[in-house]
Structures are given as structure tokens and as C-alpha cells.
Design goal:
- This protein is mainly alpha-helical.
- Helix content is 45%, strand content 8%.
- The protein has a two-stranded antiparallel ribbon.
- The longest helix has 13 residues, at 4-16.
- GO terms for molecular function: endonuclease activity.
- InterPro entries: HNH.
């Protein structure tokens, strides 16, 4: 469970980013997936990957702190994928890789692209 400070930093970052993931730039949900699922027509399983998380630009293991300039909002999938790598790359490089693969349709499942192309914006 994130600390209140980290939770507040995540919420601030998500607001600054218009509710979109720092890496894939797709919409995210924060408190409850229900409206997100209904709005975009995603299954609960697919919606889970778009839960908003706090992402440290400089990873904690590398000395990154819980401070505003070091925290962005990222969807669960993008965040965990960066840190699962054997040799994790910096945030800027990860963003480049994510966006390149997204453009080729090789990041999120095909039904995600269809769901977000139907949605007109964040859930109400």
C-alpha cells in the first residue's frame, strides 16, 4: 500500500498528465475500475492493466526519492514491464520503446486499441 505522500504525488502527476499514462499515453483509472470498464467496454482483466500507479523516474533502488519531480503516473502494465526487465532502462528510453511498440500494435492487446478508439475521453 503506498504511503499517503506517494498517493498524493501519484494523484497530482495523473492530474498534470490529463489522466494518461506517462509511457503509453492511454487513459488510466485510479480509485475504482467500474466506470472505466463501462466507458471503454473492457473486461475487468484488461482494465486492471490501466490502474494508475506512481512511477519513479529514477528508481528507488537507484536512489530515487518520493518527490514531485521524480514521480509520474503510469499504468500498471507499463510500470511493471519497465521494472521486470533483467536490465531495466531509464524512463525516457522505456517511453520510447513503449511508444514504438504501441505504434506497431505490439504493446497492449488488439482489443485495447479498439476500446480506446471508441471512447471519447476519460470516463464520466
Amino acid at each position: 500500500m503506498p504511503s499517503n505522500k506517494l498517493k498524493n504525488l501519484r494523484k497530482q502527476a495523473a492530474q498534470r498528465q490529463g489522466g494518461r499514462c506517462f509511457y503509453c499515453e492511454l487513459p488510466m483509472w485510479d480509485d475504482s475500475p467500474r466506470e472505466f470498464i463501462v466507458h471503454y467496454g473492457l473486461s475487468p482483466r484488461l482494465a486492471k492493466r490501466f490502474r494508475c500507479t506512481a512511477e519513479h523516474l529514477e528508481a528507488r533502488r537507484d536512489g530515487g526519492k518520493d518527490v514531485e519531480p521524480n514521480i509520474v503516473a503510469a499504468c500498471l502494465f507499463c510500470n511493471t514491464t519497465r521494472h521486470k526487465a533483467t536490465h531495466p532502462v531509464d524512463a525516457a528510453r522505456h517511453a520510447s520503446v513503449v511508444r514504438s511498440r504501441l505504434a506497431k500494435g505490439r504493446w497492449h492487446p488488439p482489443q485495447v486499441k479498439a476500446a480506446f478508439s471508441k471512447g471519447t475521453g476519460p470516463p464520466v
